[in-house]
Amino acid sequence: SSAIETSAMSITEYNGGGILAMAGKNCVAIASDRRYGVQFQTMATDKNKLYKMHDKLYIGLAGLATDQATFHEKLKFRLAMYSLREERDIKPASFGKLVSTLLYERRFGPYFCEPVIAGLDSANEPYLFASDFIGAPLIPDMDSNGFVVAGTSSEQLFGMCESMWRPGLDPEELFETISQCLLAGSDRDCLAGWGGTVHVICPDKVITRTLRGRMD
Amino acid sequence: MSKKIDTKTISFCPEGRLRQVEFAMESIGESNITIGIVAKGGIVIATEKKETKNPFGENFNSEKTFIIDNHIICAASGAIPDSQILIEHARIQAQQYKKIYQDYIPVKKIVEIICDIKQQFTHKGGQRPFGVSFLVAGWDSSNGLQLFRTDSSGTFSGWKAAAIGSNSIINQSILTDEYKNDLDLNQALSVLVKILYKKTNSLEFWKIIDIVLLVLDDKQQILIRKMNREEVNSLVS
Q1: What pLDDT does residue A1 have?
Q2: A75: nearest CA in chain B?
Q3: Residue B56: is its pLDDT beyond 90?
Q4: What element of type H or E holds B93?
């Protein structure tokens, strides 16, 4: 059988994926697809791209898989040192700034990963953050567009979120909305898909669900 | 060379001893008592603290007890500012190990890291040794529950029950009498109380003692917690 030739794909499209986060009323949700591929070949369909930093803070990393893994370990290191020294969990806003700073430290030899952060601050107000791979932050206005996206399917996800998101969603509505946006968005991207993972972060608990979409 | 106090830390005295290291141990022998006991299912460490009102409230790392990583705790006797430097270094090393190996650092390795630094200050540079002794308690998958004791020279050894700080020789012999191989945590706590309570006269035991537990549950999950006011007082009432 003929092997797939290597194509000149951008390094950020090498593994593929789609991540999005949305804000609701005193809750946030973060979702990602589950594909792990090498260019056009799918290697695994259960890849985890969402990482828990603490009970009210999750980060999703899109982009090159090896950089996702390494950058995540760097963040785990910094977070552990932070909580040992400060004796408390890091605030989402401080964590967003930390991520930005760590990415810019590698301005001229960057990590090819794009972070998406979803968390609840101490007043249980939602916090969302996204950045490019060298740390330029995007903190959306919660009243008009409380969502952030990243990955190869970011354009599709932007379109879905723009039409489906509205302010003031409760946890169940937020789950439905984010799930539909993720599945529809990654359906139109050959490098993302194979289901999804969703975490809905509420003040007292985190609801985690796995989605089954078009498995292709 | 003068036969009086040797001011250079990096020289042996005529009798072949490192005087500065011994003076450091003298200073630890005047400081707070710290006792650690390995029991079935966990390790308990208790340390004396001065009776003060803490304006910031009671949090875990009060004064002399520290978490190094989620599976290692440690308590210090002696110059607490000296201990802060070593603890900070140990914490960073524990995270570096986790970053490279995705696994908890072995307890003995952390103790070696701390002791290597302590040894350097008895060897070169002309700086005084660290005037602090640690009891490091932790769990790893290779060797289970372990308790180590370190001193100013950089020596360390593993113990089932150890005492450092003032009256350590007397307290260590009490531990030798009282310790049995299958003590559970509650029995270990009563041994601790036997040694520490007679040092205090007040009924407000919690004000002058910090007790920290590292508990291993059936699912091999490690839980580190400091006993709160009611629990500490209930040990002596």
Answers
A1: 43
A2: B99
A3: no
A4: helix B80-101
